[in-house]
Amino acid sequence: MGDIIYLLMLTICGIVLLGLGYFMFFGKLSPIYPYLPWGTKAGSSDEPGKSKSCPVCRYKLEKGELVKTFVYPTSSKNKDRMVHIRGCSRCLVNNEIQRRCPVCKSSLLVEDYLVSRMFERAFSKNHVHVLGCNHCRKPRKLDR
């Protein structure tokens, strides 16, 4: 009976050590995690929903770099708000960087912006959906 318990304890310890080793070498705390196919760093992927990039100039954002936006307040209890995206610090300062609308593909000047909608989520990051630029997404007038 004691041999069975000893063998069971060794098996449990082995499984725990294998799991710990897996998470140390392939988990999020691993130094090679950003280079694994399932662990890309923010801003290192070229896929459009996976990377942290400026929606205006498509440059990859460095850690801590932000996109200049204006979020309009809402009076309703909806979890979505209108947002104007101006761009990152590179495309707002450097005139040689091509600024384009992701919807109509037209060239944007420094004073142009993207019209988008931000959906606020309680337990995860907010989601921003670009609707167009200030040229292709004109405000609609109400018919009276």
Structure description:
The longest helix has 25 residues, at 2-26. Strands 1-2-3-4 form a four-stranded antiparallel beta sheet. It has two domains: 2-34; 42-144, no CATH class. The chain has helices at 2-26, 89-93, and strands at residues 68-71, 80-87, 114-119, 127-133. It has 144 residues and is α+β, with helices and mostly antiparallel strands.
Characterize this entry briefly.
By secondary structure, the chain is α+β, with helices and mostly antiparallel strands. The protein is built from 2 helices and 4 strands, in the order H-E-E-H-E-E.
Q: Which helices and strands occur, and which strands form pairs?
A:
Layout: H1 2-26, E1 68-71, E2 80-87, H2 89-93, E3 114-119, E4 127-133
Antiparallel strand pairs: 1-2, 2-3, 3-4
